[in-house]
Each structure stands twice: as C-alpha cells, then as structure tokens.
Write a structure and sequence with these properties.
By secondary structure, this protein is mainly alpha-helical. It is built from 18 helices and no strands. The longest helix is centred in the C-terminal third of the chain and has 40 residues.
Length: 472
C-alpha cells in the first residue's frame, strides 16, 4: 500500500498536527522520567542515608552549580553557530538524553553505612552529574517550542501536550514507586530506588529519540553569519531582567515548584505518619491530576478565546482557594479526612493545571517578546535563566521546607514513625506551602506578566512583518 502523502503548510513544512504534539509531549515525558525521582530524593537522603539538616544545607550548595550550569549551557547553545544536519537544539537534546540514562541513578547510590563525609561527596557528585545532563537536554527542549510554530493556538497545543507528557512522566513513578520502594511498615528500601532510576533513565532516552525523530522546525530564526552580531551573555542576561513576561512567568513557575517540590517531603511524611498509608500517596496524587487531564484538551480553544495570561491568573486564584480550604477544613487522620484532602487537592490541581498547560506557551511568547523589544531572540539564554530560577525553587524550596519540618520535630531516622504531634504539624505545613505557592503564581501572572491576549496578537503581527521583510 502506498504511503499517504504528507500535507504541507503554506511554507512547505509538514502541516502542524497531532504528530507534533505527541512528539513534544514525549520530550517532557523523557525529562520527567529523570526529574520525577527528585521528589524521592529528600526521603532517600534523610530516611535511608541518614542526613537531615545536612541534606538541607547540601541541597542549597548544589544550587551554586545550577547558577553556573543553566545560563552557561543556554549561552553555549545561543552562541553555537555550527550548522547541524537537523537542528542544534535537537542535537543538544540527543547528547543530554544519553547522559540521563545513568544521570538520575547517580543521585541514589545506596551506601547508607558510608562515613558522613563520603555521603556528602556522593550526593554532590551525583547531583552535579545528573544536573549537567538534564540541563543539556532540558534547556534546548524548552526553547524548541518557539521554533516548532509561531501561531498562538499551535503553541497553546504544544504547551498543553507538554503538560500531558509531564503528567505522564510524574504519574508513572508517582503511582508505581510507592508500592516498590516502601515496605509494609512504610519504610523506604533505598536499593530499589537506585534500580528504578536506571530503568527510568533508559525509558526516558527512548522518549527523547521519538521526539527528535518526529519534530519539525517551522520557524526560521537563523541569521547569516555575516549579519549575526557577536553574542554577549551579560547583555542577554540584562535583557532577561528587562523582559517582563519572562520575569513574571519565572516567578510564577518558582511558586508552582515551591508548592509541588517543597511540599513533597511533607506530603510523604503526612501519609506515612498522619494517614498511616504511604503507598496510597501516589494513587491520591494521581486522582489529583484528573482536572489537569480534563482541562488539557480544552486549552487550545480557551487560549484562543480568553488568552494565556487571563487563564493562568484564574488558575492561581483556584489554587489559593484550595489551599485555604485545606487549611481550615477538619482533615482528620482517617479515611474521611483523606477524602477531604483529596477534594482540596482536586481543586488545587485544577488551578495548577490551568497554569501548567499554558506555562510553556507563555515562555515561548516571552522569547518572542525579547526579539520584539530588543531585536534578538536569545532562546537558549532566556530559557536557561528561566530554568535556573525554576531549579532554584526546586532546590531551595524543599531545603527550606525540610528545615521547617526539622524545626517542627521531624526526625529522618524515625522513618514512618513520627510522633502524633509531628504528623499533625505536617497536616498544616502542606497547605501552608501550597498557599505560599499560589500567592507567588498570582503575583507573577497577574501583576508582572504583561502579555495579555491583545498585546500578544500585536507582537506576533509585528514580528511576522519583520521576518517577512528580512526574508526579502
């Protein structure tokens, strides 16, 4: 049977469609096969490896590497003028995906009887290796969205499907891992985490290869070398700080990850010692993803009708309402209390889901804004700095929350047997963290991010005119 002819758009590229969406979703699925294990890191290093506040301090230390790593990789990508067979972003993603096969497992080397100094070295070395490969894959991947299509509706679809990939990448380990890595007494089996990390790294590599093979680059932003100004990383960083959409989206993303990652350890302890059922935590969090999955197919139409900024701001308000309800409702340690917790998480997830499904499209617009206002795109640097601050939230957030947990009586050596007082404090710390997260999201989206529906349309129209004039 003859192959069906490929439909082309007005510029001669393969017409944008579901193939693009699935490929882009596979990329974030690959990223999160590695990244999802980060939610287990605090429990692994406090309860299995025997670090408490030391781990919290080390987590902040490794962010110094992030401070160098993300902008460095972004600037390298932006300044790279080599002509690759496909695309330089795809080439970097390919290289990073190979390293991630073992990168995630390096964070979970199981040596609980090693001396304290050796444990600290193992953690820092493992994290640095993982983070380097993750950045090489993730920074170009995030920048790629703005090159697949310049149409707002297409970008909304890509962003929504990226959220689908993210959900899948988080949900698989979230649901399955608790049944594998915890015993019948709610205690962690550290050796199994290491094996799981290796398996997930290989699966992530396969996802990246699918994405690379099926990605079509439609937005030509290449400038001839004779016309290309010399890349200036300091100027690029200055442009980022003057880029209101990039700053606003970054503050919102930091808020989201403080809520998601910062509360993770407290949530695990909540299920270990308050609800006394840690294996149910993954299933509960899976149900909390239902609103995200329901909203995702609607994202394209709703963005077209209302705009990304407008929708994301409403999502932040939903999350804040859910956090307040979770704090004041009588959530007890029995099944009735768990049901109330699930209901609040459903509302919270709806808010986060509305934002997360458009967040990457908002960063794509922020990259366009950089070109619109400053005359240069600097995809890698803009996304790298955004990624750096996200990672800062992912590292500092859990470190601060863990320090608060220790101050509230949490002892890692007690594993799943925290005192009733500590368990009750976790019950209030979790919604408190979520509320702080929602406030940060609203500030970033509602007060700083300035690309509403009307302004975005004007920016796209003017950039298209510039590109057309340049092509002539």
């Amino acid at each position: 049977m003859a192959k069906k002819p490929v439909k082309l758009d007005e510029n001669g590229f393969r017409k944008f469609g579901m193939r693009d969406c699935l490929a882009y979703a596979a990329g974030d699925l690959g990223c999160n096969m590695s990244f999802a294990l980060k939610s287990t890191m605090a429990i692994f290093w406090t309860q299995f490896m025997g670090l408490d506040l030391i781990y919290s301090a080390l987590l902040i230390v490794v962010q110094v590497w992030d401070a160098i790593n993300d902008p460095l990789i972004g600037s390298i990508v932006d300044s790279d003028r080599h002509q690759y067979k496909r695309n330089k972003f795809l080439q970097y993603i390919w290289a990073g995906s190979i390293g991630l096969i073992i990168g995630g497992a390096c964070c979970f080397l199981p040596f609980p009887d090693a001396p304290m100094v050796a444990k600290c070295i193992i953690f820092i070395a493992g994290y640095v290796v993982w983070d380097a490969f993750y950045t090489v894959a993730n920074v170009p991947y995030g920048s790629l969205l703005s090159l697949i299509s310049d149409k707002p509706a297409d970008r909304a679809s890509l962003s929504a499907w990226r959220s689908v990939g993210s959900i899948g990448g988080n949900m698989l380990p979230m649901v399955i891992l608790p049944f594998i890595i915890f015993d019948e007494n709610n205690n962690l089996i550290g050796e199994r985490v290491f094996i799981a990390a290796l398996i997930m790294g290989f699966f992530g590599f396969l996802c990246f290869q699918f994405m690379i093979k099926n990605t079509e680059i439609r937005v030509d932003t290449e400038i001839k070398l004779d016309d290309q100004p010399k890349f200036n990383v300091i100027k690029a960083m200055g442009n980022f700080l003057k880029n209101r959409p990039a700053v606003g989206a970054t503050i919102a993303a930091m808020g989201m990850f403080i809520g998601m990652q910062g509360a993770t350890t407290a949530v695990t302890v909540l299920f270990q010692s308050y609800f006394h059922n840690v294996k149910a935590s993954g299933v509960v969090q899976m149900f909390a993803m239902i609103p995200v999955m329901v909203f995702t197919p609607l994202a394209r139409k709703m963005v077209t009708k209302y705009g990304k900024k407008e929708l994301a701001s409403v999502g932040a308000i939903c999350s804040l309402i859910a956090s307040i309800l979770m704090f004041v409702m009588p959530i007890s340690g029995d099944n009735k209390g768990m049901l109330l917790y699930i209901i609040c998480q459903l509302i919270n997830s709806l808010g986060m889901g509305i934002y997360s499904t458009v967040s990457w499209a908002m960063m794509g617009d922020a990259i366009d804004y950089n070109e619109w206002k400053f005359g240069v795109r600097e995809e890698g640097t803009v996304y790298a700095l955004h990624s750096f601050f996200r990672k800062l939230a992912q590292g500092v957030g859990p470190a601060i929350v863990l320090a608060i947990m220790v101050a509230l009586g949490y002892v890692g050596a007690n594993e799943g047997n925290q005192t009733a007082e500590v368990a009750l404090r976790m019950r209030y710390l979790v919604p408190g963290t979520y509320a702080f997260s929602a406030v940060m999201q609203f500030i970033g989206l509602g007060m700083i991010y300035n690309l509403d529906k009307k302004t975005t349309a004007k920016m796209t129209e003017e950039l298209n005119a510039r590109h057309a004039a340049h092509a002539e």
